[in-house]
Amino acid sequence: MTDIVPTNGHTAGVTFSDSLLSWFDDHERDLPWRADDVTAWQILISEIMLQQTPVARVIPKWLEWIERWPVPSAMAADGVGEVVRAWGKLGYPRRAMRLHECACVLARQFDDEVPRDVETLLTLPGVGDYTARAVACFAYDAPVPVVDINVRRVIARAIHGRGDAGSPARTDLADASALLPTRVDRAPRFSAALMELGALVCTARSPSCDACPLPSCAWVEAGRPAVTTPKKVQRFAGTDRQVRGLILDEFRSATGPVERGRIDTVWTTDPGQRERALDSLLADGLVETTDGTLFWLAGEGGEAQGSIADRNASTAPR
Q1: Termini Cα distance of the chain
Q2: Where are the alpha helices (DSSP H) in the chain?
Q3: Which one, 34, 131, 250, 267, has the greatest CB density within 10 A?
Q4: Torsion on CA atoms 200, 202, 203, 209, rounded to nearest 10
Q5: Which residues 6+ apart lie within 8 Å of 142 measured at CB?
Q6: d(Cα 81, Cα 298) in Å, to the nearest integer?
Q7: What does DSSP say about strands 287-289 and 10-11: parallel, antiparallel, or unpaired?
Q8: pLDDT tens profile 66-124
């Protein structure tokens, strides 16, 4: 039997999966979350961390986390502020908040077990379509397609002959599903191999076509059409994201509530921008306050209230 990509009738054939899996046998990266003894919870952590964050930055943090929080209930027992503090500089700290919320749900409703099916996984806080499929596939060997930007790029080039993946579309999921080997036991490894090919060979800027194991590629056959979607260069220096990160650094290094004056010294270039960044942290629930003079990480309000009471007592007239 052959696998047909329904959107353009291209016949991928069994050699597509055979060639890719053979290549993967020789080139699979030794990533710690691919070890046989890694649990579904630990794979879930890796998938959340890997969103918009390079593998090299994730590995040391992931190793720390699975030792500290090997099961969801261990993380749930700690406050969300402690999880945000441990997140460090991975970026997009709301992911840490959602992961803590997910851990609480898993501990309370699922007896510390991560669900196996995509539909149930999608009900968990912070778990979207990609993450649900990745956990089902890589933790439980479910024969479901897993589509990230690397997979989308390979499909766009090899199957459709496009220079780039374009905007996210549900057709990518249908194409990836059609490419899955008919043997259920080979499907999960094929999904991992397809992602690996996009990460190592069919890269965005400098694809190594000479090293590609695929028997054919519509993009190469079409003369390697140029990328048509302009790539947005995300500036970081001087942005609200940078200021948010600098303010959060103050909270991570603090042993108690942070006074307003300390926050004011973090970013003096543009006080308005500093206020905007602080307001966004409050709106996201990453930081809390009661009176606007003392601030603390989410979930650490009990300790902060004690500090406020102590301060009020020390300043009260005698």
Answers
A1: 88
A2: 13-27, 40-49, 55-68, 72-77, 80-87, 94-109, 118-121, 129-140, 149-154, 170-179, 187-200, 218-221, 240-253, 260-264, 271-284, 301-315
A3: 131
A4: 100
A5: 116, 117, 118, 136, 188
A6: 5
A7: unpaired
A8: 999 999 999 999 999 999 999 998 989 999 999 999 999 999 999 999 999 999 999 99
Inter-CA distances, 33 with 44, 58, 70, 136, Å: 10, 11, 13, 14
> How far is the C-alpha of 165 from the C-alpha of 198, rounded, in Å?
11
Catalytic site includes residue 82: no
Nearest to residue 192, comparing CAs of 44, 34, 66? 34
Question: Per-residue pLDDT tens for 288-311?
Answer: 998 889 999 988 875 555 544 444
What is the CB neighbour count within 10 angstroms for residue 158? Answer: 28
Specify the residue for token string 């496009």.
162
How far apart are the C-alpha atoms of 257 and 293, rounded to whole Å?
A: 10
Residue found by looking up tokens 């397809």 in the block: 194
Would you place residue 170 in the very low, low, confident or very high pLDDT band (cuts 50, 70, 90)? low
Out of 28, 47, 113, 221, pick the active-site residue. 47
**54 vs 49: CA distance, rounded Å:** 9
CA distance 9 to 89: 45
SS3 assignment for 74-136: HHHHCCHHHHHHHHCCCCCCHHHHHHHHHHHHHHHHCCCCCCCCHHHHCCCCCCCHHHHHHHH
Q: From the CA atom positions of the chain, what is the Rg in Å?
A: 23
For residue 9, count other CB atoms closer than 10 A to its CB: 7
The two structure tokens encoding residue 175: 């194409």
